Structure formats: C-alpha cells, structure tokens
Write the structure tokens for this entry.
Amino acid sequence: MQAEQFIIDLTEHNLTEVLEASRRMPVIVDFWADWCQPCQQMAPVLEKIVREQAGRVLLAKVNADQQQVIAGQFGVRSLPTLKLVYQGQLVAELSGLQTEAALRQWLAPVLGNPEEDEAAQEEAFLEQVRGAIAAGHGEQAEAVLRQTLAQEPDRHALRALLVEYLLGDGRVQDAQSVLADVAEDVETLRPFRARFALLEEFAEAPVPLSELARQIEQPESPEKQAAAL
C-alpha cells in the first residue's frame, strides 16, 4: 500500500520509530491482509478519518502475513484488528469490521473534537492577552494581536479585542482602521461598528458635542425655548 505522510506501512524496520511517534500523537495500528475482505472494506473509511485529522493521528498499516513477528507481539488473533497506541502504551483495540460511526466513537477519547479544541485554544490565548493588558503590558499585547491578525485575518475575536484595547487607549482612528480591514458583516464586530456609526452621527450634528453636553446639564429657560419657537 502506498504510504502517505500520516498513513504509513509498519514493518520491523520502523517499528521503534512509530512507537516513539506515539508519545506525541495517537497511533492506530491496522492489521490487515490481502485475502481479508472486511479489511479491504474498512480501510478506506479508516484512512478517510485519519486524513480529516490532518496530522493529529498516525495510521500505521501492518500486513499481518508479511509482518508475522509484529502481529505476534501485538497479540493479533483475527483480522481486521486495530490497536490504538498512545504515549507508548496500548490504550484500546478493536477486532472485526467496524462502521465509520463506531471507529469515530472508538477514537474520540484520544482525539476529542477538533473544533472544540481550537475554540478552547483561542479562548486561552485571549485570556493571556487580556491578562497582559491588565498587567500594564498593552503595547506588547497590541503587537501580538496585530502580528497574529496579519497572518490570520479571520480571527475576529482577536480583532474585536484589539479594537476594544485601542478604544480604551483613546486611539479611535487606529481602532476604526483595524475594524475597516474587515469588509463583511461579522457578528463579533457589530457592536463596534454601531459605536462608530453613532460617533459619526454626533460628528455631523450641527451643534458641537460640547454645546449638547452644556444644554443637557443646563437646560434653557421656558422663555428662551418659547422665543426659539
């Protein structure tokens, strides 16, 4: 079988290397044979799942007829058999033909949900940046946010935090510039767009903001209001 980056053929020559790799990521050891029809049926499904993980798991395929020593070391008695090795230890195994749903459920404890993992990582990153700002390291936090957004402009939660920081620092134009880099309507950024729209309305008002504030604090007398009418 043709080896790919995360789908490889396991032999006695690379067994130690693969077991070492299991300390960094889960390794599925797939024991199969040419004559095993269930093996042929399950292989494409298993490979599809591994490709979806994009490097989070390694699939090591073992031809049980050609690699009988390895099959014996893993205690394989029937085909297909899957062994899940993680951190150098055997953590789970399956025998027989499995559905895609069963395979995903089997792998879930070590793989988790990629989207949830990414969300958790982003939230942890945001908390670190907020902590840096609160500790008085705003300039460093701003630099990190700008650098990250330059590489990944679609991380809108980071952009919102940067805009919030710039507004808090009194740099309204800088905040508007950061917000203007995103043309589409993004829910995370809507409150800031609404705030800037309100500021523009005030800026276009015929009465200066200072005068409006004075009028609010010191209302005109009834006589002046009547004269104005």
Notes: The chain has a mean pLDDT of 85. The first helix runs from residue 15 to 21. Residues 118 and 124 are 10 Å apart (CA to CA). Residues 115-228 form one domain.
